[in-house]
Amino acid sequence: MILWAIAGMSIVTLLPRIVPVFIMDRLNLPNWGRRWLAAIPYAALGALIVPGIFTVIEGKPWIGLAGGAAAVVTAWLRAPIMVSVLIAIITVLLLNGI
Amino acid sequence: MDTYNETVLMPGKSDMFKRGLAAGSPIVLGYIPIALTYGVLAYQSGLSLFELTFMSVAVFAGAAQFLGVSMVAAGVTAAEIIIAVFVLNFRHFVMSLSFVNQMKGHERKKQLPLTFLLTDETFAISSIYKKEAKEAHAFWFYGGIMLAAYSSWVVGSLVGGLLGNVMPSALSDSMGIALYAMFIGLLIPSFKNSFAVMVIAVAAMGINTIAQWAGLTSGWAIVAGTILGGFAGIFVLPEEEEGEE
Q: CB contacts < 8 Å between A and B, how many?
């Protein structure tokens, strides 16, 4: 039963991922459609960060906020992404440990 | 494809692959603690080592796998699990549309294997590294990103199931910020170059927050935030799309 559930999960996860490969060139999107697709990455990033970041440490939204702020500052200073990630982890570790 | 690639210095396949692995390395750091936690939780919920690793190989979607495991533990029917997972992962359809559009000009047989491994994180990195899509060996670059993410996810799951909690919980909890920090690190440089990007992202944040507050499940709320936030781009992005660099 578990293996069937996994097989089903696999199919319903893969379908949305692969269908665009087969429909994209048939869509013939107008100019605004292309602009919409070009905006999707930034919209997705926004939706993936907020409000999820406030739940990194359950019940302590300010810790996620502080970790995020650390990442914003380091990224603004042109640090590589890996540096932003490490500094955010250290920030949360320190705040969560106190 | 563009022909100028043939005449100017063209990075080879292995060069592109290595650059992809390097670009994907923040995902590895973010995935490992989550994969370990998943492995531990799945094992405790009664899945065998084979089952929990097979799920990571066949599904490769973090939140969906946590959901699946908790539903298995709760004794929910397979049909209910599958429907819940579909709803949760439908957002990848929108992301894949955007990714395939970025990869236009490349053959279908190169696009297809990449979309198999499209997650929030691999999409986020791939879509910000969009110049590479114009290279002849783009497949190897994006393949490197995807493979770094996929292998760390599968191996991390197996290790979690095999060894149990090897990571102190204070550390793995704190590492929960890693992927958010990565998303921020991807977004901020685009903010600096383009006010339009900031409008789009902030709109998506607001829509997602309101939608979740109004009672939508997080899966649908993220879909709403992504689609509607993207609509803001129609008005604020310049006519020459894919432009800001």
A: 288
